[in-house]
Amino acid sequence: MFCEFYCPTMNQEQKRKVAEGITEVLSTTLNHPKDKMGVEFRHYRPENLYFGGKFFTERNGQEGYHLTVFCPPISKEMKKELVQKLTTKIEKTLNLPQYAVQEFGIHIHELPQENLGMGGRMLSEMMAGTR
Question: What is the CATH number of domain 2-105?
Fold first, then answer.
């Protein structure tokens, strides 16, 4: 399982807290081993991001955040639970203002484990040994 977190520049400690929070939510909600998860931080420059009809530099200092989660297929109910828990976790971890919480986007991209490989092995085979 892998995530991409799009955000303004953050220091190492902020990244650690965000990554730990995302990993915790995903591992407990989806019953997925923590050592099989990754989080990549993708920092953007406000002048390179256009949203809501404006560049971020035109939004009075407002910053945006977006999380893409790559995971096995899950139910609609599980997606709803993930979105709620991840939003709450990121809001509390980064102490986001309300406008940032309202605009925080989460994209769940489902990938069957038989479509992924690591270290020369299929992920479906690797995961069969952990359950």
Answer: 3.30.429.10
